[in-house]
Amino acid sequence: MKQATIQNANGMILSAIDYGCAMTELTAPDRNGKLDSVILKYGDVSQYLENPVYLGSVVGRIAGRIRNAEIDGVTLTPSEAPHHIHGGDKGITARHWEMDADEQCIQFTYLSPDGEEGYPGNVFFKVLYELTDDNELIVTMTAETDQRTWVNLNHHNYFNLGGRPTIHDHELTLPADSVGVLDAESLPTGALRDVGGTPFDFRDGKPVREALVSGDEAIERASGLDHPFILKDEPIRLHEPVSGRTMTVETNQPVMVVYTGNFLSEETPVTLNGRQKHSAICLETQAFPDAPNHPDIATSIELKPGELYHSRTVYRFGVEQ
């Protein structure tokens, strides 16, 4: 594996490897200017070769689940039989990408061949990580195809802004009026739930703990948050009160899946810095999960020749005194 590291003028460091575009380090300053890691990472870079929790990686061709591993008569790899999850048995996460870096950016490219994991079309993927002197991490992902196919990528960083054992005290502000309803297999039912008066209401900001201990049946069934929120065109904000670190998220994607590391544990087959349930939070910007089966509520993820798939998300780090 190859690894690249870039640094901005303020000392923030971003490192990534060519395997699945996995981000292996991201530091940010606290209110006293102390730089520390804000993402979970493996103790050894070789552990990214066995990465069952998709730590720091790009996930696709389609992130999330596709019911019965079928779209429009096309059968995908049933990687969570009978369903398809996170792009298949390997997807684009478990692939070596071409990687180039300069002082400010790390760029990855990968040509996914026709038929890989059942998907039609040769698809050319490009991923760019940019670290600006305004303490912004900009993740840009694009795709082009030579046949009709489907693309819905996300970036799977596990954030913990304070280095504390859990993210219970992280305060999340999420401008979303509705959230997707999931069935017992974590697949969308096609229904949307108004967040008003529920534990899913983060519109005014609150500690993540309040949702996790709410006793809500949907949250209990998922062992935490793992739900698609329908975004408005407003920033999302995460704040860790002890360190003072903040992270503001802006995206061109219509949905954010909020996942609270529900299955991180001592039994995780590889060692994590943060090896327990709810030790981090993923803020996954993407299209609605299982979108082809819910055209009435989901933006299409179909990609045709001559079109460009384009996802751009900005993570802006700051502090609150």
Please characterize this protein's 3D structure.
By secondary structure, the protein is mainly beta. The protein has one domain: Beta-galactosidase, Chain A, domain 5. It is 3% helix and 38% strand. The chain has two helices and 26 strands. A nine-stranded antiparallel β-sheet has the order 10-11-12-13-26-22-21-16-19. Strands 18-17-20-23-24 form a five-stranded antiparallel β-sheet. Strand 2 and strand 3 form a beta hairpin. 45% of the residues are buried. The model has no long low-confidence stretch (mean pLDDT 96). It comes from Exiguobacterium profundum. Belongs to the aldose epimerase family.
SSE blueprint and pairings:
Blueprint: E1 3-7, E2 13-17, E3 23-29, E4 35-37, E5 58-59, E6 65-66, E7 70-71, E8 74-75, E9 84-85, E10 98-101, E11 105-112, E12 123-131, E13 136-145, E14 149-150, E15 154-155, E16 171-173, E17 178-182, E18 188-194, E19 206-207, H1 208-212, H2 217-222, E20 226-230, E21 236-239, E22 245-251, E23 255-259, E24 282-286, E25 302-303, E26 309-319
Antiparallel strand pairs: 1-2, 2-3, 3-4, 5-15, 6-9, 7-8, 10-11, 11-12, 12-13, 13-26, 14-25, 16-19, 16-21, 17-18, 17-20, 20-23, 21-22, 22-26, 23-24
